[in-house]
Amino acid sequence: MERIVIEVDKRIAKAWQKASEKKKKEIGNKFNISIAKELMKISLGENEKEYLDFLYELRDEMAAKGLTQQELDKI
Predict the structure, then answer these.
(1) Using one digit for the tens of pLDDT, what is the confidence trace for 35-61?
(2) Quick one: which H or E segment has residue 60?
(3) What separation in angstroms does the CA of 34 have from each of 18, 28, 53, 62?
């Protein structure tokens, strides 16, 4: 994994700093899925199979990190 920096509201930043490592990891996993869906869809354009393959790999990785299928479906 690599790090990126995003700007958030001051209140969100403070809440993040106070959050437990477990909660940060959970949010990070969900964010990873959400941003991947948005950015990969754009960059892959019409190559739907490659996009879907990427999403399935990402789903498996996130499930291995503890996200349930129900949580993944919500995202």
Answers:
(1) 877 776 655 555 667 777 877 887 787
(2) helix 48-64
(3) 23, 10, 16, 12
